[in-house]
Amino acid sequence: MRRELLRGIASVCASCALLVGCGQIAGLEEAYATARPAGGSSVVEGSVEITTSKLDLGDVTCGTEGKKQFLLLNHGEAAVAYKLRPLDPEAVRLSVPLEGRVEAGAALDVEVFVKPAAAADITTEILVEAPVLAHIAVSARGVGAALSLEKSLADFGEVRMNDTARVEVGVKNTGTRATDVTKFDGETADYKLLWPGMPTPLHLEPGESKPLTIELQKGPASTTDVTTTVAPVASGLCGRAPTVPARAKRINGDITLGTAEWDRVNCGTAPGTRNVVITNYSPKKVTWTASFPATPPPAFTFVGGTENGTVDEAPVGGSRTGIITLAVNDFATPGVRDQTVQVTLTAGTDAPVTRTAKAHIEVRGALVTFDPAALTFSSNGTTTDSKTFKLKNVGNQTLTVPVAGESTNDNDAWSVNFPFTVPAGGEVTGSVSFRSSGASSGTITLDKNLLDGAVYCNPKATLAVKGNSP
User: Fold this and answer.
1) Domain 268-361 belongs to what architecture?
2) CB of 167 within 8 A of CB of 154?
């Protein structure tokens, strides 16, 4: 289903058009008929011919390159200058210099190589100026296995030195092909790594998840965390293998503090509450008072007065528990919140002792902005003014726009070319072109409600465009 992706480009010109990605929108035919035909046919203007407007490379295995080509033909009697600009240079490379000349009567053979970094669709463009402005749509589908770990942290909290403890982490194949995890890096004297059927490799079909158990071993008490970093090892993966840190604190005592751990939640989804569990193995009643450090500002809030409480004496060979309940202050902004909770414990008539517990949450999602936030163009009706913008994602999840868009306004003056995948923590380049005999202005809006299946944190990202006709 096609959905409107760009909204609110208010135009006052009489005969212009809007393009999104590779789709042609009503009103474009007259103004751009030679510059961007539909269906992958050749582009011809004057003496210059580009042999296609569309390259579909089909399935390309991650770690390899797919290849297709097009020709830039000069049918004229004088040399012409050209410029080529892949909008996604990380995924697309060309066999020729990005700027140069095509001699009279000659052809430039341009090989296009696409190397996917993820098991996902690639939809991007190559901008060509020779001197006609043309857009060659490039698409491919990255295929291969991709792994994710379904925890961002394996936190054991405090564990008595003569006890073992386990945390389970799901290992999921989010790719399009099966894989075998031959081993997991990160096993140490303090931690054992266990999986079903070991030592046989862990086989994962696409979409399948299986458990990895991280087991903390008995050992001496420590004043600092006992840590390791766990990573699956498999060949032919799309992207890097994921990692998950593990941490625990061994104590020589009979009162332990657990961790309030939400792990991963999607931004905007109320995550509920979690508990720091106080476990009393001693024959003494324990009282507690909890607080947050003065700085930085706390990411969590105590719930229901549980920052104070008591735990009864433990029965022989058993334990009693109390809980400190926490809520998350901000679950709309992507990022990790790892907060120290100070807990003062008093066992019976013993002197109070202050220890620390942890609260941890990772809020997941994409958070995108346009850079710059505004562009100004000038066109006299026979020339096209083109400018690029960066679509930046400061979130921690890749944003994929699943569908092309369309405009409800037939009187726009804009050709808007979006790359449709913005990696977490990265940026991609898009372009806007303006050609008109009048003036036009408005706003391009990337709206949360239009992104099917995307975890998109900000309600909208906008790019103001203004076109002038001298």
Assistant:
1) Sandwich (2.60)
2) yes
Token representation of residue 73: 């033909």
- Pairing assessment for the beta strands 374-378 and 460-468 based on DSSP bridges: parallel
Question: Is the Cα dihedral 276, 277, 283, 287 positive or negative?
Answer: positive
Structure tokens at 16: 């212009």
Angle (nearest 5°) at CA 164 between 161 and 170: 135
pLDDT tens digits along 273-283: 999 999 999 99
Phi, psi (rounded to 5 degrees) for 465: -125, 140
Q: Own/partner pairs for 311-315, CB < 8 Å, 24+ apart?
A: 311/278, 311/280, 311/285, 311/286, 311/287, 312/280, 312/285, 313/280, 313/282, 313/283, 313/284, 313/285, 314/254, 314/280, 314/281, 314/282, 314/283
What's the CA gap between 232 and 146, in Å, rounded?
11
Query: pLDDT tens across 114-166, in order?
Result: 998 888 888 888 989 887 778 898 999 999 999 999 999 999 999 999 999 99
- Average pLDDT on 232-240 reads 89
Distance CA 239, CA 252 (A): 42
Q: What are phi and psi of 285, to 5 degrees?
A: -70, 140
- What would the two tokens of residue 159 be? 């564990």
Judged against a pLDDT cut of 70, whether residue 438 lies above it is answered with no
Extents of the domains making up the chain: 268-361
